[in-house]
Amino acid sequence: MKRRNWIAGVIIPAVILTAGMAFAGQISVNGSTTVLPIAQKAAEAYMKEHPDTSISISGGGSGNGIKALIDKTTDIANASRAMKKEEIEKAKANGGDPVEFIVAFDCIVPVVHPSNPLKNITVDQLKGLYKGDIKNWKEIGGSDKPVVVISRDTSSGTYEVWEEKVMKKERVFPGALLQASNGAVVQAVSKNPNAIGYIGLGYMDSSVKGLSVNGITGSKKTTLDKSFPISRPLYMYTPIKPAGDIKKFMEFVVSDKGQKLVEEEGFIPLK
Length: 271
Hints:
The chain has helices spanning 36-49, 62-71, 85-93, 123-131, 157-165, 182-190, 220-224, 244-254, 256-264, and strands at 26-31, 54-58, 76-79, 99-112, 120-121, 148-152, 177-179, 195-200, 209-210, 212-213, 231-238. By secondary structure, it is of the alpha/beta class. The strands form 2 sheets. Strands 1, 2, 3, 4, 6, 7, 8, 9 and 11 form a 9-stranded mixed sheet that branches. A two-stranded parallel sheet has the order 5-10. The longest helix has 14 residues, at 36-49. The protein starts with 25 loop residues before the first strand and ends in a 7-residue tail after the last helix.
């Protein structure tokens, strides 16, 4: 899969919109760095077919995208986790009525440096590492080296899914090094032989080594059949029922053509 170097986001030039209301031919997208490459690829293809449309895309995390959706400062929020009940209530209180689109599926893969001899890890071992209870790789069958734990920050939807499915609602310990994006995690792990991190499947490349979890490798098949224990849908949200250019773009993302782009980016299409 492709090497990605995005840290906070990618901008496709466009006029920055206000109040979350797209002017004709202008769409703003904000949020998850996991969904970012899907949105970027789809936007590039869509603008080639619709040269009068300009789409602005930025990252910053699912939480930031959803906040922008609530505040009506973006037309589409990318999210790697579902909106929470309280977020939907805030949006409605502000005159919105969020509409959810599942645009792809993904799994979160634990990654280590390629020199790490470990190949498999259990969910319990991951929890022990991220709680700070396991401090040396030898405790779980690795080399006698200290573990460097790398996590996403709390505004990340990937972090929230990790917290739910791995940490079982317990917090990552304060000694973990926090990164703002999947790409930043890849870079950090690739440069540290003692590090462990976690990334979306679409960000896997040869600079890091993915670990199987509970003996199951993260893949298209194991994500769709839910046998891989850290799987999830990926979302785009609109503040209200979309119309005009926004509706056309969302239809493109979930179309056969858009879903082919999802697969090209290393993620798992809906069909």
